[in-house]
Amino acid sequence: MKKLFLPVAVLAFYSMSxxxxxxxxxxxxxxxxxxxxNEFRQDPPAEPQTVVTEQQPTMTPMQQPVAAPxxxxxxxxxxxxxxxxxxxxxxxxxxxxxxxxxxxSSAGLFNQIPMAKKDNxxxxxxxxxxxxRLLAITTRIGLNLNGxxxxxxxxxxxxxxxxxxxxxxTTMLRIRHAYAQMDWAKWRVLCGQTWHPMxxxxxxxxxxxxxxxxxxxxxxxxxxxVDYKAGKNTTLTADALYQLxxxxxxxxxxxxxxxxxAVLPEMYLGLxxxxxxxxxxxxxxxxxxxxxxTATAKENNESYTKNVDEYVTGFSPIAYMQYTxxxxxxxxxxxxxxxxxxxxxxxxxxxxxxNDDGTVSDxxxxxNFTTWLGLSYGKRKMLSxxxxxxxxxxxxxxxxxxxxxxxxxxxxNIDHIYRFCPTFSYNVxxxxxxxxxxxxxxxxxxxxxxxxxxxxxxxxxxRICAMVKYNF
Length: 472
What we know:
By secondary structure, the protein is mainly β.
């Protein structure tokens, strides 16, 4: 029955999508569409499970991404000295079905990759187990704030929370956004927590809470961001960030301590060009972490604790584009990543050499190339397609060991990951309905001294996701 269910479900989905698109082409778009309609974002990061994992919780008409801060302009305040407060939010329910066990978090809503085969020696794959669930924990509430003019700048801010806090409680409130900003004619300064600039304004139009992760960089972080309008269509960005919920991995698991101990913040420099119909952008992210402050050393058969001072620095360039014309939208993003685990990507680092006393003397980053393409058509009735691919490029230097001293989000023996995801959504006024099929494959194999993978075997998870959302 299980093998028959998936093909029938996918066929039914495509039939419904094609019929809906035909109907839309012959009807007028005369129903008001919610302003939230083009929001597709997600939340909590997935928690990889293997060498190192993180257990912490994470937008399209369906998803609901809060616009990137650079373009978020709350209602203009015309009063003198008083703040204007605007309440917003939504009630959102997700249903999902998975055909096998996966690396995921947020009670399974934030899904990333299928787990490798787990042979029990008697012909059974213990990870070939299906599951399903219905949840409302991503219901959200927020306040847009608009204040007086200060130092010649319009002041504003945002506070946003949901019930997807990273704890064992199913009702824990969690900070999503909490920032204040000042806008001048050419400058904008933002201080607080919001989307990482690598997430940006170009993100997949999908229903899934993971917003295309691990192909799409995903993180919200405390930051100090400065935007400069260099021309009518050009914006330069400089951003300094620290970690909170979405973190690097290391000897103590997933933790913000590695960023904190490095003292210097993660840095991002970017350029956006926005002529009519287009968003074109490039950027460079530099992330330095300190895996350990102290380590156990051995000398003359005696062990003692000593201070250590080794760092891991990753350089990750990114490029992206978006084209919109009438009801058609085309989006794409490509990233060369070094130690991008804090962006919920399958990456990390490893020890490349040791001192005579047994402590690490140097690290090497695990590198990858990741890209995705998104196509969508429609507004009230929208059909979207998402294609994602991520390739493990291994390390720059040989690792000291292939069995220890490797810190990665997900698994260290994945050669590549891919995803195909068609989505259909119906968006009217404050109401959104959607259904989505997601096929995600991961190729597991044997690693060499640079953590490159060969002799792979691919496993695939088939996910069906449905969403009901009411905006206010």
